[in-house]
Amino acid sequence: MSLPTGADASTVATSGDAAATAAISLRGLRKQFGDVAAVDGVDLDIADGEFFSMLGPSGSGKTTVLRLIAGFETATAGTVWLGGTDVTRAAPFERDVHTVFQDYALFPHMSVLDNVAYGLRVRGIGRKDRRGRAEQALDTVRLGQLGGRRPHQLSGGQRQRVALARAIVLEPRVLLLDEPLGALDLKLREQMQVELKQLQRDLGITFVFVTHDQEEALTLSDRIAVFDAGRIQQLGTPREIYETPGSAYVAGFVGTTNLFDAATSQRLLGVRAEHAVRPERLRITPTSAEPTTADEIRLDAVVVETIYLGTGNRVHLRTDDGLELVALEQYTGSLDSAAHRGDAVTVRFARADVVPLAAAP
Amino acid sequence: MNLSRTARRMLAGLTFGVLALIYVPLLVVVANSVNPSQSMTWPLDGVTFEWWRRAADSVGARDALVTSLQVAAAATAIALLLGTLLALALQRYSFFGKHSVNLLVILPIALPGVVTGIALSNGFRTILGVDLSIWTIIIAHATFCIVTVSNNVQARLRRMGTSLEEASADLGAGVLTTFRLVTLPQMRSALLAGGMLAFALSFDEIIVTTFTAGNGANTLPIWILNNMFRPNQAPVVNVVAVVLIIFSTIPVWLAQRLSSDVEAVR
């Protein structure tokens, strides 16, 4: 296995020999459960050292793709490449990837230290050596003191760290994480997000992260694949996914958005195709304040509801011709800028902030 | 839920009545094993261990006890091995005819013992041409002992889920290593519980045994049946019955404790 050199996110497109150099390559991957195609033709290259997220609602096929990479499921069609080797038919224990499970899957009859040392044990590494390395891995996840405990004596966050330590002690090239933070409460989840990101940077290994939490995917990832119905709907950096969503589905799933159908777009922009604009790009001003400019769109509207969010307001509006809009108002010092229910206002947004939604690639 | 006073008293009375119906006769057997009167008159006019001494000297009873223990041990061993394999196959793999296999394996415990007995007896003697012996009893008992082991292990495997085994494979362990280091330790108490139930089931089995026991291979329950109505053996039969009660209660009690311990940990 040769290490790919300097393959950064944007260059790992679909070049012919990408399968030979990427950490993970999927080609035409399909997985059928009975009549249902859980994964329906996925092509993907994940670069070495990348923090890659697979984002989608439950049932979108993201976890099945992860299980196909790990080897827990066998592909109905297509191939899985790991570091240039075809592993489509290989058993999980023959693949140089390790998984952090959603339910952690710690062995309840073993101590924390034995759990972490398990992978070393089955590789025939001596007791003393594996103890040392397991202790080191526990230190990495800041659990150095708890090696003697049983998993059931740990909190959710600690179990999560043990599961991480158990995987990284084997120094895999690729770590698969299946909704690893899903069972943690918000505060702990945010803390673990930071730790995961640091860990990934320090160890320099590829992370493939499955999540249904769009915010988590946006904050952690180098690149994101948005899944729906067993296919990748869009692949890109968090910024690309958020700012130029490729389809109404992606725009709707990642963050909130204002969708304009073809007819509305025709009326507003003079282009007959679906468009979207993010709520934070809308400005709410009193009616007929300033004259409109060529690169700005103005719509007269009535405030339907104002919802206080702490950092600002979410304002639901209805324009005079019946279009429903959502705007995000950030507090900028003056509190009275907040629109009140029933107010007649003008909604303004730059033409450049309205992005066209291409049909799903 | 709160029950009225009357309802609670009625339920308590009913419970007591049913339990008394089951256990008073058992206590009578225990009492009669130390009853000095050979015709088991009531109440006892003293306590004697004469019958226990005589039972201990009875070659027939002792041989029957040894046979019973041998049969139960061997049938349990077979059941543990085959029942575990069966449970693993049914819970962890999919194969052609899986549901039929499941049904066919469970059937012996539901079929009337007489039918199983006759069928096995015919099978052994006329089809296989084997003489009935202790081995035919063992095989006959194993047919229904497998079910208890397999059911226990299957329940455990189902509750355990597959993620521990997947984690083990993910960390580099092959199929056998995973079984040895993860699956087996996880189902140890289920094996113990299933094994003990199987042992108890075999130990007091009488119907199938009647049909599959060869000459000279008497199990304890059969010996009791044969000696119950011989007046001078009756007190000894009581003693043997007490021994049987003890031998069948302990494993069941242990099995229940083991499975409830596991419940409590989870």
UniProtKB/TrEMBL annotation, chain A:
SUPFAM superfamilies: MOP-like (SSF50331), P-loop containing nucleoside triphosphate hydrolases (SSF52540)
Keyword Signal part of the UniProt annotation: no
InterPro entries: AAA+_ATPase, ABC_SmlMolc_Importer, ABC_transporter-like_ATP-bd, ABC_transporter-like_CS, Mo/tungstate-bd_C_term_dom, P-loop_NTPase, Transp-assoc_OB_typ2
PROSITE patterns linked: ABC_TRANSPORTER_1, ABC_TRANSPORTER_2
Gene3D superfamilies, per the entry: P-loop containing nucleotide triphosphate hydrolases
Gene Ontology CC terms, in alphabetical order: ATP-binding cassette (ABC) transporter complex
Pfam families named in the record: ABC_tran (PF00005), TOBE_2 (PF08402)
Keyword set, alphabetical order: ATP-binding, Nucleotide-binding, Transport
GO MF entry, a single one: ATP hydrolysis activity
Residue stretches making up the ABC transporter domain: 24-254
Metal-binding is among the record's keywords: no
Domain of life: Bacteria
Record-given protein name: Putative spermidine/putrescine transport system ATP-binding protein
Source species: Nocardioides szechwanensis
TrEMBL record, chain B:
GO biological process terms on file: transmembrane transport
Subcellular location per the Swiss-Prot or TrEMBL entry: Cell membrane
A Gene Ontology cellular-component term: plasma membrane
Domain ABC transmembrane type-1: 65-255
Topology of this chain in the membrane: Multi-pass membrane protein
Gene3D superfamilies associated with the record: MetI-like
Pfam families linked: BPD_transp_1 (PF00528)
Keywords for this protein: Cell membrane, Membrane, Transmembrane, Transmembrane helix, Transport
Regions that span the bilayer: 12-34, 69-89, 101-120, 132-150, 190-214, 234-254
Similarity annotation: Belongs to the binding-protein-dependent transport system permease family. CysTW subfamily.
PANTHER family in alphabetical order: PUTRESCINE TRANSPORT SYSTEM PERMEASE PROTEIN POTI
UniProt-recorded name of the protein: Putative spermidine/putrescine transport system permease protein
Organism of this sequence: Nocardioides szechwanensis
